[in-house]
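Example record

One chain of 411 residues, shown exactly as stored in the release files.
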Amino acid sequence: MTKKIVVTGLGATSPIGGNVTDTWKALLAGESGTHTLDNDWAETYGIPVNFAARALVRPEEMMERQEAKRLDPSAQFALISAREAWADAGAPSVAPERLGIDYATGIGGLWTLLDAWDTLREKGSRRVLPLTVPMLMPNAASAAISMAFEARAFARTVASACASSTESIANAYEHLQLGLADVIIAGGTESAIHPITMSSFSSMQALSRRNDSPETASRPYNVDRDGFVMGEGAASVVMETEEHALARGAHIYAEIAGGGVTADSYHITANDPTGRGAARAIGLALEQAGADRDEVMHINAHATSTPVGDIAEYAALKAFFGDRIHSIPVSATKGATGHLLGGTGALEAIFTILALRDRLAPPTINLTDQDPEIPLDVVTSPRALGDGPLLAISNSFGFGGHNAVLAIRSV
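Predicted structure tokens for this chain:
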């Protein structure tokens, strides 16, 4: 029998806010989290991009120094957002064997790995920290969260590039349906604003180069968009069966009604231009939700602000929805937050949940001249979503051809 899976807790630390409330407020206000970096990387290494969307509140301001020293920044962000989500959910009383973790990252402990390499080259093997491997491994975030909350059902890790945390929430939905846990903390994290990644993404011409105007660099759907903006942070949700949530009197934000995960099998970095895999992921999410495409009233798009990626996503949406896609309100929130890679899907799932709660689609900033090849109904100022039941989807697509979509329903 299909169970109703609900969200009872939200947590986030992002480029526009140190918690969910501040992040949502800044998003609705049209604020940008992108700024010039306060370092000399561009000059030292010849990197053509000198800006990014760093987390607004640094992790050292939100956790004890001794704890932070044992975690890579990506795991620090993850634990901070998970703690907020857990507290927001009312710290559910659940047996450790019935509490699970489904968490994600695209890259993992990049800073730990590269700092250790520098230490090895400059100071020798004896100076490499013994916790280097536990800090750099991709499952470090899920492990840290599981130990913080004594979660013993499982602590799983998804690493599917920019689709990672959407897939982690889709997995949590399925694991709750299967009865593998009563409560799950799901989400994703990333801290990869580093000379290596900035150089690599610049070399593939994926990053915007608007050094003279970083706040407006991420401009989804704009005719002169020239790439994405690197972001960092984490977002977490507490999910449980509706039966379990009601039994403990929990506040319910929304229902995760379904998740669709597919692969393009096309190219390691490029989307399938036909959008077939992405369209199928949308269909699978709605099939799990028992919903028809005509019920979708809002879309949080992946929309990274790359010339090719935005077009490919439109192709997928058009292939699935037909001409109706031109009348569905679409929000592209990376204009404000930049691209959090493995953390972006969970953050945008929270934006979708809050849009349904407040019946208010958040704005897409920096859209001044919409690409005529992408004739979507893009929300550029907060827009009311109307009365009655609401169903929305949140899209994520990642290198390797990963597609992940969530269907989210209002309560």
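Notes: The first strand starts at residue 5 and ends at 13.
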